[in-house]
Structures are given as C-alpha cells and as structure tokens.
Amino acid sequence: MSAAAVGPRAGFGRAVAWVLLLAGGLAMILPLVFMFSTSLKDASEVYDLRLLPAHPTLDNYVTVLSDGRFLRWFANSMGVAVVVTLSNVFFDSLVGYTLAKFEFRGRYIVFLAILSTLMIPTEMLVIPWYVMARNFGWLDTYWGIMFPGMMTAFGTFLMKQFFETVPNDFLEAARVDGLNEFAIFWRIALPLVTPALSALAIFTFLSNWTAFIWPLIVTTSKELYTLPVGLSSFAVEQQIQWELIMTGAALATLPTLLVFLVLQRYIVRGVVLAGLKG
Amino acid sequence: MAGIAIQDLVKRYGATQVVHGIDLTVQDGEFVVFVGPSGCGKSTTLRMIAGLEDIDGGEIRIGDRVVNRLEPKDRNIAMVFQNYAIYPHMSVGENIAFGLYTSKLDKVAKRAKVEEVGRILGLDALLERRPSALSGGQRQRVAIGRAMVRDPAAFLFDEPLSNLDAQLRAQMRLEIKRLHQRLGATIVYVTHDQVEAMTMADRIVVMRDGRILQVGSPMDLYENPADVFTARFIGSPTMNILPAGVSGGALTLGERPVRLALAEPAPPRILVGVRPQELRVLGEGEQADLALAGIVAVVEPLGPETFVHVEIGDQLVLASAAAKNPPRVGGAVRIGADVAALKFFDAATERAL
Ligand SMILES: Nc1ncnc2c1ncn2[C@@H]1O[C@H](COP(=O)(O)OP(=O)(O)O)[C@@H](O)[C@H]1O
Ligand SMILES: [Mg+2]
C-alpha cells in the first residue's frame, strides 16, 4: 500500500485530496472565525470585513452577559436540552433494550412503526405538534417546547442496535444471580452500552441546544425563549446588532464544546470496555 | 446441596423438537457431565434446569421441589457460562459479590465471603482489578467465584473451558475437579470435549440429537459402549470400526476366523470395534486372535508410543507400535488384537451385541 502510494501520480492525487480537504475545512471554520472576530469588534467596525479587529474589545461580552434576557434564554436552553437528553437516554434505551432482548407478539410491527417515523422531517411534524400542543394547553410552556423530543425514533433505533451486540449471557447470568428485569437493564445492560449512550447524549443535547423552528413556533413570551430564538429576536427588534448576536452565538457554542469534551472520554472508555469479552 | 431429577423432559422451538423426553437423576454431590456433539441439546437441557428456558413437557426437581415454573433466581442454582459473562464494568470483587445479590447478609459478612472465595480461587490479590486486566483463566475463575459464593443447591457449567487454550484447559479441569471434591457440590457440566468428560465426571451422559444414548461412569462407557456412536465418541484416539461378516458363528475378518461368544445369535453383518491402543503392530511371525495385514500410510510418534495409520483395503485403521523401531511408511505390516479387546455391534442398528 505505502509502496504503491509513492510514484508521482500518487503524489498528485494526494495533493488534490489535501487541497479539497483544506478548502472544505476553511469553508467550515471561517464562519466560526468570523463569529468570534465580530464578537470582539466595536459596532462601528462590524461591516469592515477584516478578520482581525482593529480595536479588539470585550465590551460586547459585558453587554450580553449583563443583559438578563440572555442569561434567561441560556438557562432555558440548558434546562430544555438537559431534560430532553436525560429523557432520551433513559426512554430510548429502555425501548431499544426491550425491542432487542425480549420476544413478544408484535415486536417487529412496533419496531417498524418506530422506524417509519424516522422518515418524516421535522417541518412536516410541526403542524400536528402545534395542534396537539394547543389542544392540550401546552402552548408557550416548557413542556410544550420539550414534548416532541422526549423520545426519538432515531435514539430508540440506535440503542436497539447496540443492545443487540450485548451477549445474552450477561443478562442470563444476572437473571440467575437474582436481579429483577429492571435491575438487569439498569445495572448490567446499560453500563455495557456507555459508548452508545454517550453518542446519543451528545447528539440529543446538540440538536436540542440548536433547535430553532419548533421553539420559535411554540413560544410567544420572551421569558420562555430558548437561546437561538432569543438571539434571532435581537436581530428583528434592534436593527440587527451583529456584534451582539455574534457574541451571543459565541457564548452559545461553549456548552457544546463542554458536552463533547466531557462525554468524549466516556466514548473512548466505552470502546475499550466493549472489546473485553473473552 | 441437592440432587436433581429430570423426568421425560421435552423442549420444542416452534415446530422442531430439540429435546425428546430425557430422564436422568443426578445424586446429591455428584459430578455429572453431559457430552455430545454440538447441537445435540446439551445447553438447552442445562438451561431448562436453570430456568432460562421454558419446558414443553416433563418435570424437573431440584432437591425435593418441582421447579418447572420457578424463575431462575428461585431455583437456588448457580451457572457458569462459556464466555464467562463476568460484568466488565465491575471489579473482580464486585463481580463475585454479585453472586450474593439476593442474600440477606450484611455488608461485612458479604465482604468476608467474597474474600474467602477469592482466597480459595487464588484471586485474593486481584479483587480490585477490572476483568479487562485479567487473563482468560482468571476471568473464568471469577465466574466460578460468583457461582461459589452463594452456596447454591447445584452448579451448572456450560462449556466453561472452551475459550481457553489447551494448557490452561488442562489446569482448569484439575481446579474444577478439586473444587468439586472440596465443596462436595452437585455439578452438571456440559461439554463437547470427551476428555473433559472422562477426566472430571462421576458419571457421563452421552447425548445425541436430543436424546440420551448412554449414562455411566467414564470407565464403564469406555469399556462397554452401548453403541457405535458412544464407542467412537469416548476415548482418544477414536476407536476403529471394521465391518465384518459372520459365518458359522465366527467372524470372517483378517487372517483366520475369530470365534464369537455372544449370548444371542449373531446378525449377518457386524461392526467390530477395536481401540488403537489395543491394536498392536505384530512382529515377524507373531500371532493374534484378530490379525490384519496392510500398508503403513502414516506414522505418528508421540513419545511413549507411536500411532500407525495402516491402509487395509480402502479403510484406514489406526494401530499402535512400540516407540522404538516403528514400521516404515509404505511398507507392509501386520496388526493384531486379542479377542477380549474387541467390541461387537450390529451393523444394522449400530447397537452393541
Ligand atoms: N433459541 C433457539 N431457537 C431455535 N432453535 C434453537 C434455539 N436454541 C437452540 N436451538 C436448537 O436446538 C438444538 C440444540 O441446541 P443446543 O442445546 O444449544 O446444543 P448444544 O449445546 O448441544 O450444542 C440445536 O439444533 C439448535 O439449533
Ligand atoms: Mg451449547
């Protein structure tokens, strides 16, 4: 392989690959760089598209962080994302485990029904969700923001696939040891799929942290806005203060980074664990 | 401890029946080994005893209780699995302590039991380790420890040594046997390896296609196999089976007729079984009750003895020779055995005569 990759043709191919990757990387990272750069600029400098601010300042951060609304939205987003994530980690794995490890009449039908909802995009679900929320009186409440995501077909599917890789011997050994079925799930099966749990947690947290359309639709009072909705309202009301929006956005990326850094460790450890069986 | 009694046990998966009415009594403290080829229903039977599979007919008793409908945890048995099934996210000590999950002992007493079991199994220095930092043999010992710590009515083992290499397997065989002697426990042990069965069992149960073919002590099965299958399955190397005719009450096989002393009249076609250890290469002019001539195909020196594959007609027969001066490959050779060493089977039914 390495011997074949030496000649001039291979060198050329590699150069092309590098250029493409570099272009892709830049395309991804430049908006982020501009976001940070703009957040350090003075309002007068915003439309001056230089990468480095002429007079870097932290004033925007002070303004945003001392604005009670921002902190409120940040807390709203955090609360919603955390609750929905915990709910998914628990319920998706419970259902996934049941589908993977128990035989019962209609199991396949249930699985198909869950899978089929994967094919319906959020945009199509928004209207039924809205009708449902209105009929139940959930409009403009935290529960209204959260309920559609409390369990997901994707998470259930993911967990089912992972639980299928857990050898039955573990569960049967626990059954002989005297654990009840919930204890087997909670104390034996769940710890064996930590990599999948971490992946599911990261994925769920991120998608809820950045969720925009549904929170925008279901909330009307500003105190209930999530961060993305709140930031966009900055744009509408105050003739677009880009430097403040970018500062808010920059602050919004922090939890994302944190979640990833913390949970990544478990992913790696989980993979090590998974390679253990005899 | 308790004995186990199985009566007319049946298991079906859908339309296919995989266990066809098994009867067996395991005495209290007895070490019984189920042996048979892969897929013959050994694990299924064991799992029915454990309560991990529902039964479709018959009765299982542990001690004096019928356990047909009891959950595994209510049967007071312990089970050791082929791939150990020790929990990777718990330390060795925690794994062993899990055997006491339902026990009412307090923390200190539990800890003491775990340490005692650790000592018995030579795991005392490893109690804080994770299973990932253990060798295969140590992992299996942890699994045995988790089973032992509870003083169950019976131990069930399902091919516990199959994942270990040959050397470790021999060592663990010895350890399990000594453990049995020490604990006096009732053990039902499943394996496809006849060496494990021969070396460990008080009694061996030979299974095939969901039925018990024969039950007996290792030597009993070795000396008096009930049929060709058991004869070939038990003992290593495999017993030679030679087809022969019968005329005038004597075998027509080899250099001269061999008188048959059977209780019943012999069937016209017979299978003659003779173990390689009993079938010796004959010296010049040496005589034997059964003597055959052939060509040496392969010579396998093993140290104390040498096995010789001999081509007789279109059949390959395994015989033994003294370690010194083994016959030459390609040369003509005569092999022979005493009539007392021969087993006779009906060629039609393959049952012993
Ligand atoms: N869950 C199951 N569903 C259908 N057939 C099974 C199942 N488990 C085992 N069998 C079948 O039952 C027979 C006996 O299996 P098993 O007891 O595992 O054999 P052994 O342990 O002797 O190798 C095999 O033919 C196997 O294919
Ligand atoms: Mg098996």
Q: What does this protein structure show overall?
A:
Helices cover about 75% and strands about 0% of the residues of chain A. Chain A has 13 helices and no strands. In chain A, helix 1 crosses helix 13, helix 2 crosses helix 13 and helix 3 packs antiparallel against helix 12. Chain A starts with 7 loop residues before the first helix and ends with a helix. Chain A folds into two domains: about 35 residues; about 200 residues, Orthogonal Bundle (MetI-like fold). By secondary structure, chain A is an all-alpha fold. Chain B is α+β, with helices and mostly antiparallel strands. Chain B has two domains: about 230 residues, P-loop containing nucleotide triphosphate hydrolases (Rossmann fold); about 100 residues, Beta Barrel (OB fold (Dihydrolipoamide Acetyltransferase, E2P)), CATH 2.40.50. Chain B is built from eight helices and 20 strands. Chain B has a six-stranded mixed beta sheet, sandwiched between helices. Chain B has a five-stranded antiparallel beta sheet with strand order 13-12-11-14-20. The mean pLDDT of chain B is about 90. Chains A and B meet through helix 8 and helix 9 of A and strand 6 and helix 4 of B. Adenosine-5'-diphosphate binds next to helix 1 of chain B. Chain A: Keywords: Cell membrane, Membrane, Transmembrane, Transmembrane helix, Transport. Chain A: It is found in: Cell membrane. Chain A: It is a multi-pass membrane protein. Chain A: It comes from Alsobacter metallidurans. Chain A: InterPro entries: MetI-like, MetI-like_sf. Chain B: It is a peripheral membrane protein.
